[in-house]
TrEMBL record, chain A:
Source organism per UniProt: Halonotius aquaticus
Top-level division of the source organism's lineage: Archaea
Stated name of the protein: Amino acid-binding protein
UniProtKB/TrEMBL annotation, chain B:
A Gene Ontology BP annotation from the UniProt entry: threonine biosynthetic process
Protein name: homoserine dehydrogenase
Binding-site residues, NADP(+): G10, V11, G12, A13, V14, G15
Coiled coil ranges: none
Signal peptide residue numbers: none
Stretches assigned to the Homoserine dehydrogenase catalytic domain: 141-314
EC main group: oxidoreductase
EC numbers: 1.1.1.3
Family: Belongs to the homoserine dehydrogenase family.
């Protein structure tokens, strides 16, 4: 596999930024300086990590050796790099959450999922009944890194357990 | 051997159908017992008269129920209600037959799910053998398919093995109704029992997947209901099925028997996939080592359907 070492790959970097003007631009500079090609930025404004920072996800395409340099220079510049790797968020996971979703702070639930798991929320559909007594349902679509589905599901289960919510999981094995 | 002599214990839907259909399969019923009475005739009981008496008077005959255990028979059919824990009295009935070097065919899930090792031990010391196709998926030949492939060549089983829960989920999805409405409808139709706990809490399905795990482990490991992770369908609101449907999916009560263990719970499955059978149908998928995936579906419950599996087992044991 020696010929793949210099191959250009897409890498995902997960950062945490302080919510101050100019922070995002400052974080992105080392990427272009080191020769990385910025593919996408997912700036989750309005979402806050448990530490009060804003999560940002950046896809960069470059050769592996340059990628290491990018991560190093980000860290040298004081940017908090949560995760860096060549894995892409390329698997989709759809689950249903059932229970008192609104009462238990749905957005907090989803933030916890994103913060703890190797997952990024791509779609949410909520169906709440008229009364307050009945439980409501949400369909949550997550992008996960390949091979981490079981891990994400078990994190999800823990978070749901803590809030007395019910997770209806997909059958993860193979193609149905 | 042409035709076997059967002692049938239990005269519920399955036991009754076994008695009714035995003749068609070339077998003779020499004893029948319910919980309070027995009818015994070494030359074959008058099945019609016995079942009429059961319907009219609530008893099958004048003999003591235990007398059926000592009657002349080649195969004991254990079709009394499933009990958990020590699985009595079903377990003792089967033990009695094996101790007499007679075969036993079970429709009662209790002994196979809760005391599989004990059963196999008794069988090893006996000239009699046990079969229990009817305990898993009614008329669907699941255990015999695993037998044919050999447990070593099946890596996992999964599917829908409870018709009541499946009926409720598919009606909820089709009609946009809530659980309580559909359960009441299912009870009116006779699809759900007055006390549906076993079915809707996933226990019945779990027992079946525990049995499959025991068969697949082939003595290397023993499972009971306590080893299974079980979740039912009573907490699923209609809105969950609506959200699933918008995304081309639906919810089914899916059981899994894998090397990691036994689990039963509601799962999201593709709406048009093989696992989303509707109504009271059952389906099992078997993962094979060299032949991909097998899907076997059919009627997983009902008197004549389950009796068919019992009588096939009888034929296998006595051919």
């Amino acid at each position: 596999m020696s010929d793949t070492a210099s191959e250009v790959q897409t890498h995902t970097i997960r950062l945490e930024l302080v919510d101050e003007p100019g922070e995002l631009l400052r974080a992105l500079e080392p990427i272009s300086e080191a020769g990385g090609n910025l593919m996408s930025i997912y700036h989750e404004r309005g979402n806050v990590t448990p530490r009060g920072h804003i999560p940002v996800e950046v896809d960069v395409s470059c050769a592996p050796d340059r990628f290491d340099r990018i991560v190093d220079s980000l860290r040298e510049g004081g940017v908090n790099v949560i995760q860096a790797g060549s894995e892409r968020y390329d698997e989709e996971l759809v689950v249903l959450l059932v229970g008192h979703l609104v009462d238990t702070d749905l957005s907090d639930t989803l933030q916890q999922v994103e913060a703890c798991a190797n997952a990024s929320l791509t779609d949410l559909s909520l169906s709440a009944p008229r009364g307050n007594d009945d439980s409501s349902s949400a369909r949550v679509r997550l992008k996960t890194k390949s091979g981490t589905t079981d891990e994400v599901l078990s994190t999800l289960r823990e978070i749901a357990d803590g809030k007395d919510l019910h997770v209806i999981e997909p059958l993860t094995e193979g193609t149905q | 051997m042409t035709g076997a002599r059967l002692a049938v214990l239990g005269v519920g839907a399955v036991g009754r159908s076994v008695v009714e259909l035995a003749d068609e399969y070339g077998h003779t019923v020499t004893a029948v017992a319910d919980s309070s009475s027995a009818a015994i005739d070494p030359d074959g009981i008058d099945t019609e008269a016995v079942l009429d008496r059961k319907a009219d008077e609530g008893v099958v005959g004048d003999a003591d129920p235990d007398a059926a255990l000592d009657a002349d028979y080649d195969v004991l059919v254990e079709a009394t209600p499933t009990t958990l824990g020590d699985a009595e009295p079903g377990f003792s009935h089967v033990a009695h037959a094996l101790n007499r070097d007679k075969h036993a065919v079970l429709a009662n899930k209790g002994p196979v799910a809760e005391r599989y090792g004990d059963l196999r031990e008794l069988e090893a010391d006996s000239d009699g053998r046990i079969r229990f196709e009817a305990t898993v998926g009614g008329a669907i030949p699941i255990c015999s398919t695993i037998d044919d492939f050999g447990p070593d060549h099946i890596t996992a089983a999964r599917g829908v093995l409870n018709g009541t829960a499946n009926f409720i989920l598919s009606r909820m999805a089709a009609e946009g109704l809530d659980y309580d409405h559909v359960l009441a409808e299912a009870q009116d139709l006779g699809v759900a029992e007055a006390d549906p706990t076993f079915d809707v809490e996933g226990i019945d399905a779990a027992l079946k997947f525990v049995i499959l795990s025991n068969v697949l482990a082939d003595g290397d490991e023993e499972y009971t209901l306590d080893d299974a992770t079980v979740e039912g369908i009573t907490d699923i609101p209609g809105t969950a099925l609506e959200l699933a449907a918008e995304d081309g999916r639906t919810i089914r009560l899916i059981g899994e028997a894998t090397p990691d263990g036994v689990s039963v719970g509601p799962r999201l499955v593709p709406d048009d996939g093989p696992l989303s059978v509707t109504g009271t149908l059952n389906i099992v998928q078997l993962e094979t080592t060299h032949a991909g995936r097998l899907n076997i579906s059919g009627r997983g419950a009902g008197g004549p359907e389950t009796a068919t599996a019992v009588l096939s087992d009888v034929s296998r044991l006595t051919e």
